Amino acid sequence: MIAVNPERFLADLHRLREFGAAGVGKGVVRPAYSEADIAARDWLAGRMREAGLVPHLDPVGNLFGLAEGRSILLGSHSDSQPEGGWLDGALGVIAALEVARASVEAGGPPVSVVSFQDEEGRFGVTTGSAIWSGNLSLDDADRQTDREGVRFAEARAGIAERAGEFVDPGRFTGFVEMHIEQGPWLYEAGEAAGVVTDIVGIRDMRITYDGEQNHAGTTPMHRRRDAFQGLARFNALLNDRLRNVVTPQTVWTIGHVRLHPDAHSIVPGRAVFSMQWRDGDADRLRRMEEIIRATAAEVAQEAGLSVSFGDMLGLEPMPMDETLRDALCDSAEAVAPGRWRRMQSGALHDATNVARLMPAAMLFVPSIDGISHAFAEDTAEADLVTGLEVLAGAVGRAGG
Ligand code: HGY
Ligand code: MN
Ligand code: MN
Fold it and tell me: Which pTM does this prediction carry?
């Protein structure tokens, strides 16, 4: 049995939050490759070393804490959204660290730890684990830009001196990622844990409408080629057209909009916006893409705009490994009898990529009010500790 230390785990979790602490409550601003992110990774590397692991930074900023020989791999990511909470990713990394440390104290099994880089997609979608798993080539990743136009290649050049090679995935027997649910279901049901059956797929791209920039006081309405009006019309029409294709689990989001030149008295000549959609069924994702492209083109035609589509990024829906899932279920039933469930993940995770390399599974704990990707994100301390114990129990069952 691996006897974890809840106080040590919680202390490390709070310490990690200090890197990029922001906003009211327990908010965090720690996007990939920011100063706070790099400082947090340096601190984590030190904690890994103290835990008896060998820290290793790979060329894209994924930080591993390696146990000797073949081992199970636990972890998640320590970068955050532009405005994020203190647990998204961080929980899985610190829980991994605690289980690895407790495992050393217990005399095994060997446990390695990872904090993947740019899970939150400053440059794409789960960038660090996507590259490590072969889902995304390094060349393609290097060309990806953040929304300010900074290239991934430029960002990672900052750590090049300290980085070693990519870690050989063959040294790991499997991967387990603990994470907050980021949705309302466990919290509303008063349950302590969720064992993930599968992770939904995602598609994500930028769409640009180009019209005509002009004076907002003198340009008659009928002569305008207003890029924002195109975007607004596209959104309304799309919501209507998707209705025949989607299920209650399907989601789509326009989360980022930039108007040019972004001024009160100028008819916007350009609108650049993100278009993201998610579902557990790859065929539905494809049908949604057809509707999105056709609707955007139709609106452009009607409004005298031109439309262009950026590269489409995506991850396929991914089932979790049954043997590791069973280990999590058995452990959940032992630690929180009758207070856990099997569930799908609507959020993306590094486990989707790692599942290409080795058996992978995930464990959720409740999110208070189902809030995440916001400063208000939080989880009751008792639930954090229960999750840690379920994870340790599963590692004990799954072995090295
Ligand atoms: O967007 C996601 O689902 C993940 O949190 N990056
Ligand atoms: Mn996350
Ligand atoms: Mn996230």
Answer: 0.94
